TrEMBL record:
Reaction(s) catalysed (UniProt annotation): 2-phosphoglycolate + H2O = glycolate + phosphate
UniProt-listed Enzyme Commission number(s): 3.1.3.18
Family: Belongs to the HAD-like hydrolase superfamily. CbbY/CbbZ/Gph/YieH family.
Name of the protein this chain belongs to: phosphoglycolate phosphatase
Organism for this UniProt entry: Aliiroseovarius sediminilitoris
Length: 218
């Protein structure tokens, strides 16, 4: 296999285990609305389409939903989450070592996530990951999110290469569909937040342990 000219990663559920902080912020919102808290696995099943969808799904799972309530809940969620983005969030075991090896091989690295750009950059900074990435692309208002290929194409362009010479690494059906829509080879981290069926990823393109991830030799 030709060594890729760029490797791009999803963030939540791929590089970092962020669900506990997302759960905590969600449950602050639900408590303020006199609703029951949601367990971690339920929150994980809601992750992947951005914080707006996370809040929407959490409201619908616990009671009444309307646009006004969504706006109120989203504001409260963001206020809490912005203060606690890395209270419990940590890189998965082996992530830092893998990124170190890739950087030593001079392969440009990027992040493409449905998390808003500023929180994504802040999490990377607070966890000491920023130095590994040339480009971090997150969600922006009124701009298409994954699985639309535009964010991934933008990240690849920022890394100075083309889709066919890149690799996208993710943990979800959304990530898989994004890579397919963008015509980018895909690698699946099966130890993350896989929340949908992925039928077309060969076993050799899947890994469950970051200490065994190999993006350069196959």
């Amino acid at each position: 296999m030709t060594i890729p000219e760029a490797i791009i990663f999803d963030l939540d559920g791929t590089l970092v285990h962020s669900a506990p902080d997302l759960q905590a912020a969600t449950n602050v919102v639900l408590a303020a609305l006199d609703r029951a808290p949601l367990d971690l696995q339920t929150i994980i099943s809601f992750i992947g389409d951005g914080v707006e969808k996370l809040v929407e799904r959490s409201l619908k799972a616990t009671g009444e939903f309307n646009d006004s309530l969504q706006a109120e809940a989203l504001t409260l969620f963001l206020e809490n989450y912005e203060q606690n983005m890395t209270t419990l969030t940590r890189p998965y075991p082996g992530v830092v070592e893998c990124l170190e090896q890739l950087c030593a091989s001079d392969v440009p690295l990027g992040v493409c996530t449905n998390k808003p750009t500023e929180p994504a950059r802040r999490i990377c900074a607070e966890l000491g990951l920023t130095r590994y990435f040339n480009v971090i692309v997150g969600a922006e208002p009124n701009v298409a999110k994954k699985p639309d290929p535009a964010p991934l194409h933008g990240c690849i362009s920022g890394l100075g290469t083309t889709p066919d010479k890149s690799v996208y690494v993710g943990d979800s059906a959304i990530d898989f569909q994004t890579a397919r829509n963008a015509a980018v080879p895909f690698r699946l981290f099966s130890g993350g937040y896989l929340n949908g069926k992925i039928l077309d990823v060969p076993t050799e393109n899947c890994f469950r342990d970051w200490t065994e991830a190999d993006f350069l030799n196959r």
